[in-house]
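hey so i finally got around to running the thing on that chain from the lab meeting. sorry it took forever, my laptop kept dying and i had to restart like 3 times. anyway pasting the input first so we r on the same page abt which one it is
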Amino acid sequence: MNKQESKLYYRLAGVQGIYYIVAGFVIILFSLTANQVDKHLITPCNSAMVGSLIIGIGCTLFAGKKYPNVPSSICIIGLVSSGSIVITQANNALAGQHTVIQSLDLVIELAFIGLWIYLIYWKWINRKFSKLNTDD
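ok and heres what got predicted. didnt touch it at all, straight out
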């Protein structure tokens, strides 16, 4: 992994980790005060458990940025967590329960997916080309 990809990895893991930690706390806060929250801000399917799981994923991503080489497990958890949230958001949109905040979250999650795919792809390409270079 070159310096530019390494820089992107550290920033992506940190930003997605912080984003998930904040989003998890917001979901928990909204689920605890569900009677006082406008239904246009958050749908009833969000719960404290979902919030706590998102906080856990965010902490894992944030802590995973300390590794000098990109661990595949961090790439996978970043990609899969974003993918599962995108699927949930798309399902809510198809059911007519989509909100403005969820639309913004969908765009952010799609950006995370694109960046993780970019990093995973270039990690794979670098591995393949390093094998080709050592065969000479």
